[in-house]
Amino acid sequence: MANVTHVRTQYGLLEGRVVDGVHTFLGVPYAASLLPGRRFAQPQEPDAWTGTRPALTHGPVCPQVPTYGPVGHGATSVLNAGEDCLTLNIRTQDIHGKAPVLVWVHGGGYAVGSANERVLQSGAFAASGIVEVTLNYRLGALGFLHLDDAPDNRGLLDIIRALQWVRDNIAGFGGDPARVTLAGRSAGGFAVATLMAMPEAQGLFSRALIQSGATPAVLPMHCAQRTTERFLSRLGTKASALETADLIQILNAQKQICDVSYNNHDWQRDGSVTVVGIPFQPVIDPQTLPDHPEQAAAQGRVAPVPVMIGTTSAEYLTHSRMHPHLTYHDLVPLLDPRVRPLGTSGKTMVERYRHALPEHSPIGLWRAIAGDLVFQNPTTRYASLLCQTQPVYKYLYGDILPDETGAAHGAELAEVWWRDGLRVQDLPQRYHGLNAVSARRVHEIWRSFIADAAPVLPQGSHWPSYNLSSPILLAISDNAVRHLEDPFVARESLWHS
After folding, report:
1. What angle do CA 137, 408, 114 make, to 5 degrees?
2. Which residues in the chain show pLDDT less than 50?
3. Exactly one of 186, 206, 261, 384 is catalytic; which is it?
4. Is 186 a residue of the active site?
5. Which segments within 236-330 are labelled E, that is strand?
6. What pLDDT is recorded for position 480?
7. pTM beyond 0.85, yes or no
């Protein structure tokens, strides 16, 4: 039976539960409610309370609707949603300790997903001696629509506000505010990479862990303005009316903009949105994000922290279900609007990849080119820039198999959050084939980085840091963990003239 546990924060006393040896506090506010009149405002400190505040159930998730095809539909939360969503879930083994802290940012293309999903509720890191914090933040138009009279990058400002809350309060949960790892997967990884370049986030975390998401999802201002114009036109209102507009109507307009951008790429209409296909992204902004993260990294102006970064071996495997009957003839028009912002053409890239990967079928080439565009290349570039100024540990999860049929986007998530005694049947269907031995190994690698910064591999072996002269990564599969020369360096070079 669960026991009651209490922690005092600077805002008041929280009541949680001890579940399977883990002190659990759910739905803890790290910022003030978005209601009334703060839907598009800078996140503010939460209100203090008197007495004891129950932290026994999850708070609402950010309002959202399914979008982005099969990947986005699978990531969309079906849990209780509401605008009072700026909350944390905290789990810790010992409220009197001084343990490393993990702050986890969920994925979902900056439009869907939540910190409350089943796969993130195992308490795995808490059981391994880490204070774990998962957070909800504003998504879609609420978090990332560019508005002249509102701060840009509100979703990322929410994460910064959560990190400030952790800095000021996590010691009461047995955490060490000087040892905070900021981590995330997919859009969560995009967010971590981008936050490394945001001045206001400096000093709030001491390590960064970027899974399947680096630096492609950042827009120049003029492209963000195009999205705003299309969104307001679709909604049939002015920006000044958004604060009081019907939320369902906002979400419906958001869905239409997202689906059109993701399924019908148009370079003339969308600009560089076409690269990733998600219209609500962080934007280069003098106040919050002065430079693109890659430019900031090249100039040594990112958080100077150890970084663990990597991808799965077949990032676009699930995404490719949208195009099950591709021919070589289909590839050029499909790719052209996505690569035009990079100064190349679909024809050029198809020709280069057909020469480099002659055994690939048309669908395999699509997986390779689009997967490299969105995930592999940005990860390789960011790792190559960062490793010149700070320790970088690059990994590859899953075997490289013919036609890009290895580990799909997100395949590692349940292993990262594995806890002995967890019932596989309690996880989403896609993880029911999970190998417990491999999962235990993967979780331990992640735990080691969070705890030690220089990760220790199973059996105490060494993981060499990534560098330009010897770009060695850690290849992780069900059967083994081994060092491997980065296979995506050569693929990234295909994009240069």
Report:
1. 15
2. 1
3. 186
4. yes
5. 307-312
6. 87
7. yes
